[in-house]
Amino acid sequence: xxxxxxxxxxxxxxxxxxxxxxxxxxxxxxxxxxxxxxxxxxxxxxxxxxxxxxxxxxxxxxxxxxxxxxxxxxxxxxxxxxxxxxxxxxxxxxxxxxxxxxxxxxxxxxxxxxxxxxxxxxxxxxxxxxxxxxxxxxxxxxxxxxxxxxxxxxxxxxxxxxxxxxxxxxxxxxxxxxxxxxxxxxxxxxxxxxxxxxxxxxxxxxxxxxxxxxxxxxxxxxxxxxxxxxxxxxxxxxxxxxxxxxxxxxxxxxxxxxxxxxxxxxxxxxxxxxxxxxxxxxxxxxxxxxxxxxxxxxxxxxxxxxxxxxxxxxxxxxxxxxxxxxxxxxxxxxxxxxxxxxxxxxxxxxxxxxxxxxxxxxxxxxxxxxxxxxxx
Length: 376
Description:
The protein is of the alpha/beta class. It contains twelve helices and twelve strands. α1 packs across α2 and α7 packs parallel to α9.
């Protein structure tokens, strides 16, 4: 279940029924430094071994115990086996854009499927990660939302996606791109703020200095939400400098009730107020995500309404050309419509960009690869 305090934000699509799933194995990334030292001590080892293990995992991006030569040979396998269990098993890996975009489908210990996407650019490398297996938010144009929620990911299952790709990047997996992963976006499968505690713990692991964490900049982390207002307000209290991305997709309640069903609980005005509070508390501009859907939300009057709503706010709009799900009735807006929508927003004084489309030929939209694997 989502881990929110105060107002509950239960999934709008219930978790899939079935036998109770075993918890993921405990992993180094689930633990803070003090907990790691205690875990190593409980194994009968000296506490400083925890720092050595953390240096290998977060600093050197090493997973193979055989490479951890500063650990005693007699206890190397035991320490690594207890604190670095395998969490992600590759199922499929697809590449496009000349190898600069890579999408991985992973199977977790209980058979659940999740996806991550690595995107390389000349000046940066970004990974898009999942925070849940499936999603309970039920957005009808999203493959993950239609699949329903399987379960929340553990902190380590979230972090391990990033560490895996950080290692691939360091080994030169992306031609013509930097050899260091620099940005993380929580825009894969799931609603991050519905798995609040583990997502926050994962952010701290990713941004803690090495060897305690991966040492990424908080300002290079983006957390998306469909608008879970209590969690958005809670995030503003965390003293983090991450970017908040609000998946708005419609400026009016009538349409947003359909496209983003959680809007039936928290309306556009309340969601934008929570976004304003986050921007005010952190000084960070909020990204307004808006999927451009043909003849649904791309009308000129909706662009004008969105411009009026956002004028004067510390926000910018990220227009997203829809990556249609096979067999879906939803389709992307024509480019001339997209350009006119952007023009109207800019005329209203709202900073607007159109997202670079990546991965269309490899089922780039979140949930598509997992859905195909489930069907097969």
